Amino acid sequence: MAVVKITVKKNGPFRVEAPEGAIELVDADGTPYDLTGKTAFSLCRCGGSVTKPFCDGTHSKIGFQAAELAVKKADNLG
Fold first, then answer.
1. What domains can you pick out in the chain, each with its CATH number?
2. pLDDT tens digit string along 50-73?
3. For the whole model, what pTM was predicted?
């Protein structure tokens, strides 16, 4: 069985690492993305990438803060 590693980057994307062919990524219509030759890629979480679902670094330009950080800050306000 192939080992798939997904790393949540702080205030950034989901980094996906797996042997080539171990992951199938499909859009909302079920059409697969071509991952030929890719053993690692990053998925956008900020919503600002122009290459969705892949990260293009926009998160760092727009000051994206991941939900887990926002929850911790909100808890400290009460």
1. 5-75 (3.40.5.90)
2. 999 999 999 999 999 987 766 666
3. 0.82
